[in-house]
Amino acid sequence: MIPNPSDPIGELLMGMRMRGASYSKLHLAPTSGVAFPACTRARFHFIACGTGLLETGTGETMPVSCGDAVLLPHGGAHVLMSRAGGVVRPFESFETMPLCPGMCALGTGPEVGDGSSDGDVLVFSAEMEFEFDTLHPLTALMPRVLHVGPAPGEEPEVRPLLDAMEREMFANRAGTAGILARLAEVIAASVVRNWVECGCGDATGWVAALRDERLGRVLAALHRDPGRDWTLAEMATAMGSSRSVFAERFAAATGTTPLRYVAALRMRLAEQWLSRDRRPIDVVARELGYQSQAAFSRAYKRVTGRSPGQSRNAR
Fold this sequence. Notes:
The protein is about 40% helix and about 25% strand. The chain has twelve helices and twelve strands. The protein has a seven-stranded mixed beta sheet, covered by helices on one side.
């Protein structure tokens, strides 16, 4: 698929990936619940059987039922329970039973399907890492919870994926864990894409700038080629305006100056490439347009507060 140059959000979403870090098959008996702590990763839940409630750390409660998928992009603290008023235990307090590499089972009652109560809930849960590359601002704008359900006509392209996930939860076949993991990643990415295509909810600022055809064209170009030695004049030309008009509109939409935006963009990429991808520091410096490793290191420490070496060794 070739990105549409008139759709900068679509172009940036071409680089979107989600990667699962750990997976759990969770069984909740009636009147029980699990409290998930806040974490630095996103949290994904798929309800394979039963109905329950999801309560966020701010006290908001939403019903969830068989066939629902829920993504918490910021990994905020939340509770998943079979019904209100039940006994809630911390996630880390459960004993786990390894099912296969990367996946374990935990729960508060017998396995669903062996004559247990109708109030049981079976959930596939995953911790996930966003791999947006240069799309970090989009993550920050997402709501606490993104939800997709099985209602007819709701996210029609996701419906077959949810059906496949439900079948795999009960299949008990070779390779089920791997298939569930891949389905979860695709569904979560689709939920994010649908949120973007529906206007990103109430999000403004950066998203509004991307939806401005002329300003969005500049932002997409910056994200496409962050290592270029951008000047204010080149950015204004890409927008088709004077430097003063461009700088004013850019600052109003993003809250920062064009050159500071480019610097921050480079450092976000550098942090990902160093800590996640373990790229050599000199390679990162060269790809981001710095003439020397020393110049890159100074800029990196000025923005992030630590040296490139410290970031690279963080994991």
